[in-house]
Amino acid sequence: GRSMTQLTFDFSRALAKTWQPGDEVVVTRLDHDANVRPWVYAAEAAGATLRWAEFDPATGELSPQAVASVLSDRTRLVALTGASNLIGTRPDVRAVADLVHAAGGLLYVDGVHLAAHVPIDIGALGADFFGCSPYKFLGPHCGVLGARPDLLEQLHPDKLLPATEEVPERFELGTLPYELLAGTTAAIDFLAGLAPSRSGDR
Fold it and tell me: In this structure, are residues 53 and 69 in contact, taking their beta carbons and an 8 Å threshold?
């Protein structure tokens, strides 16, 4: 997509179609507004309740317990930063993911400020959705969002009638920016080439 922000707006609207009044959406005070405002608007449109997880202002840390305190059996989604863009603290995404999934919710991770600093394994993090910006790791200015194909199959974004229902193409609206995709692939390949090989593969 054009940016992580645009992708988050798109996915918030698609997910909101599955919500009902009384459902709950959790955002955090540690997050950039790009991973807050889309969920605020989506919750309002669906009649869902917005809940806030607070971080400790003395340490800048957002603990799993802070998120747990606002979860319920009505939680449909938690939006969480992988790393604060302002102060750099990193929540324990895996611990939060386990709590969210135990409550029956989904976890959307803003990895914009994490992806440039650590190897990303979406499955190991427990993220249902992971968004990032390739320009933060030597790539072009665009957005990337990863999710399991079986989860994407359940979502139906607004799109043009001739557009395919196949995943992931149903989320890729209009002509794609192929030059940006090529640049993103090149940046990932370059960085992967710097890492030690595993079992002789790169």
Answer: yes
